[in-house]
């Protein structure tokens, strides 16, 4: 599904970014060039959806693997 028609960004693109560790709004905005010229900016306003998709693919270490 397309999340940004201006840039042609799909949910698969965002999931792939999440697997690469890009899960912060600023990282996703930089990766996909949101708010650049030629983009309407609508997807930047809805960055939360991008973050949720990316985070769903990002694997974090198990909490029991961290020891104090």
Written description of the protein model:
- With 68 residues, the chain is mostly helical.
- The chain is built from four helices and two strands, in the order ββαααα.
- Strands 1-2 form a two-stranded antiparallel ribbon.
- β1 (2-4) and β2 (9-10) form a beta hairpin.
- α1 (11-19) packs across α4 (47-57).
- The longest helix is centred in the C-terminal third of the chain and has 11 residues, at 47-57.
- The protein is globular.
- The termini are far apart.
- Mean pLDDT is 81; it is low at 62-68.
In short:
By secondary structure, the protein is mainly α. The chain is built from 4 helices and 2 strands.
Q: Secondary structure elements and their pairing?
A:
Layout: E1 2-4, E2 9-10, H1 11-19, H2 25-32, H3 42-45, H4 47-57
Antiparallel strand pairs: 1-2
**Low-pLDDT residue intervals, each spanning 5 or more residues:** 62-68
The major pleated sheet works out as:
2 strands, antiparallel
Instruction: Record the strand order, biggest sheet.
Output: 1-2
Shape: globular
Q: What's the count of strands? A: 2
Helix content: 40-55%
> Treating each run of at least 4 consecutive H or I residues as one helix, how many helices?
4
The fraction of residues assigned to DSSP E strands is: 5-15%
Mean pLDDT score: 81
Distance, first to last CA: 42 Å
Helix/strand-derived category reads mainly alpha
- Rg, alpha carbons: 14 Å
Element order: H for helix, E for strand? EEHHHH
